[in-house]
Design goal:
With 60 residues, the protein is mainly α. The chain has two helices and no strands. The longest helix has 24 residues. The N and C termini lie far apart (97 Å).
Length: 60
């Protein structure tokens, strides 16, 4: 192998840095925020919480 071939191979093997996508970062932040809100709701309500149906009368 010649030096020229080795240099060409090194150029081909060098990884190209990908540009960061701002929408991917925004989506990841939104997903994390939604998960945090859902987990907070589960902690606040707890496993034994139940909502009783209120009786609504049509006649006052």
């Amino acid at each position: 192998m010649t030096d020229k071939t080795i240099a060409r191979a090194r150029v081909l093997l060098t990884p190209v840095a990908a540009r960061a996508n701002p929408y991917a970062t925004l989506g990841a932040a939104a997903l994390a925020a939604m998960a945090a809100v859902l987990m907070a709701g589960v902690v606040v309500l707890g496993p034994g919480v139940h909502f009783d149906e209120t009786v609504v009368s049509a006649q006052p």
